[in-house]
Amino acid sequence: MRNVNIHEAKTHFSKLVDTAMHGEEIIIAKAGKPAARLVPLREAVRKIQFGLMQGEVEIAENFDAPLPEDVLAGFEGAK
What we know:
- By secondary structure, the protein is of the alpha+beta class.
- The longest helix is centred in the N-terminal third of the chain and has 9 residues, at about 15-20.
- Strands 1-2-3 form a 3-stranded mixed β-sheet.
- The protein has a domain at about 1-40: YefM-like domain (YefM-like fold).
- The protein contains 3 helices and 3 strands, in the order βααββα.
- Strand 2 (about 25-30) and strand 3 (about 35-40) form a beta hairpin.
- It starts with a strand and ends with a helix.
């Protein structure tokens, strides 16, 4: 963990962000008292679970059939 004052943080912000990205925590102090903490973001790990909706969703046989002319015209902005 590294402590820096606000002036140093403003002057070397880009370097401090790079340091934090590499795992180091940085404490930013104002008037000698800790005021903020700069830490690396942890990427959210999203676990994909296939089949959660199995048996609950039904797709019609003709779901990819061409749209009727009047519906298609509505999407294309025709009146």
